[in-house]
Specification:
39% helix, alpha+beta, 6-stranded antiparallel sheet, 154 residues, 6 strands
Length: 154
């Protein structure tokens, strides 16, 4: 699906305004950049997929999940996703990657700045809140996941 120039311009102008360096793969309709997470050694990959009437932001966490941890991580992410308003965590069962995905719908091609903020920058507060719990879970797979999420949300 092709993207509209109006949405692409709004997203690229926003990134430039925020002084975010990015690469634009026009053939595949993707913008790519990296952000550091607080207290993290590796940066988080951010991919923005431009579409005809929308854009999707994928924030790929710098934590690879071992196959044997898929069930507990899946439960953790499911519990964390409950109640999230704009976005959700996803576990790629083929590669062990965890990402947070947000979506902005722009049927008329107009992209308000508040939508850009919510879709591109908004995920970082959610990731900042829940990524430490994911790291704890990987170190302590027998931990009570319900209590872990409850503690993160209190």
């Amino acid at each position: 699906m092709d993207y509209t120039n109006q949405i692409a311009k709004a997203v690229t102008d926003y990134l430039r305004e925020k002084q975010i360096v990015f690469a634009f793969d026009k053939k595949n309709n993707y913008l790519m950049t990296e952000f550091g997470l607080e207290n993290e050694e590796y940066p988080m990959e951010v991919v923005i997929h431009l579409m005809e009437d929308a854009f999707v932001c994928y924030c790929v966490l710098p934590t690879e999940i071992p196959t044997e941890m898929y069930p507990v991580v899946g439960e953790y992410l499911h519990r964390v996703n409950y109640g999230l308003i704009n976005g959700n965590f996803e576990l790629d069962y083929a590669e062990g990657a965890v990402q947070y995905k947000t979506f902005g719908y722009c049927p008329d091609g107009v992209v308000p700045e508040a939508l850009l903020e919510a879709v591109i920058v908004g995920p970082f507060s959610i990731i900042h809140r829940y990524h430490p719990g994911l790291r704890v879970l990987l170190l302590h797979p027998k931990i009570n996941i319900s209590l872990l999420v409850e503690k993160l949300e209190s």
